[in-house]
Amino acid sequence: MLKAAVLTSTLLVSQAIMVAQSQLERSTAFSPVVKGMVLSDAECSQFHSRFTDHDYNVYASVPAGYQKASRHYPLLYVPDRVELFQILRAMGMAMRIVGVGEELILVGIPLKSEDTEDWLRKLAFAFTLTESREENASLGKAWHGEVRSGGAPLFLRTLKEELISYIEANYRVTSDRGLAGYSLSGLFVDKGPNSFPTQVGDLANLAATLTSRAYPALRVESHIFEGTDHLSGIAGSLSRGLKVLYAGPQPQP
């Protein structure tokens, strides 16, 4: 089961992702991070995706007591900047402190980049579903380099055929997989029909359409954060997504 938190304006979707079962011709090499963030509860590695041709760091944060326990844990993947991983990690810890958070393994998958503009160019490729030459040209001027869109199917293969198999071979995990995103990575999680995020009305239409189809294994929740903009909405939407998907039992008064 895949829990997907679409946090562009917070549409929460649960759906299934099947990991490719075919034998790969060559495996992806994961190596320790030489330079990067150091966390006491996280193991750090890096790899080059043969599908997107991009380099990624991998930060796997495990629950307290993981090494001494024998149980298996749900997974939440965060395919975006390391800051998004850090925010979710801190929020998850806070939820568990007050007894409302489910223990899980959090996996950050930030793109390695030379600078902010390089990161934006790579992001536009990895998280958009279709190619838009008009957007490519416009964003290329703004970000001072060649921009390609429409690489989301290749990034999905990176997740399914490279990363998931590596994580699940090295950590005690359940079949409960989550995927969290915001902005362009939220668009990837959502699998929206357009290349780039649009307006609130489009999200409302998508939520209404999915709800009307009454898929048996699909739960849809959406929420509009009034009085926020693209930056100020990050914390609220991520927090709400965690609570909806991983709150667990409420503490007794």
Report on this model:
The chain is globular. It has 253 residues and is an alpha/beta fold. The protein has one domain (2-246): Alpha/Beta hydrolase fold, catalytic domain (Rossmann fold, 3-Layer(aba) Sandwich), CATH 3.40.50.1820. It has helices at 82-97, 116-126, 133-142, 152-170, 184-190, 200-213, 233-246; strands at residues 2-6, 11-15, 30-32, 42-48, 55-61, 73-78, 105-108, 173-181, 220-222. The protein has a nine-stranded mixed β-sheet, with helices on both faces.
The top-level CATH class is Alpha Beta
The DSSP helix count reads 7
SSE pattern, N- to C-terminal: EEEEEEHEHHHEHHEH
Relevant CATH superfamily: Alpha/Beta hydrolase fold, catalytic domain
Summarize the entry for a quick read:
The chain is 36% helix and 19% strand. The protein has helices spanning 82-97, 116-126, 133-142, 152-170, 184-190, 200-213, 233-246; strands spanning 2-6, 11-15, 30-32, 42-48, 55-61, 73-78, 105-108, 173-181, 220-222.
Name the descriptors.
about 250 residues; alpha/beta; Rossmann fold; 7 helices; 9 strands
Q: What topology does this entry show?
A:
Layout lengths: L1 E5 L4 E5 L14 E3 L9 E7 L6 E7 L11 E6 L3 H16 L7 E4 L7 H11 L6 H10 L9 H19 L2 E9 L2 H7 L9 H14 L6 E3 L10 H14 L7
Parallel strand pairs: 1-8, 6-7, 6-8
Antiparallel strand pairs: 1-2, 2-9, 3-4, 4-5, 5-7
Helix pairs in contact: 1-7
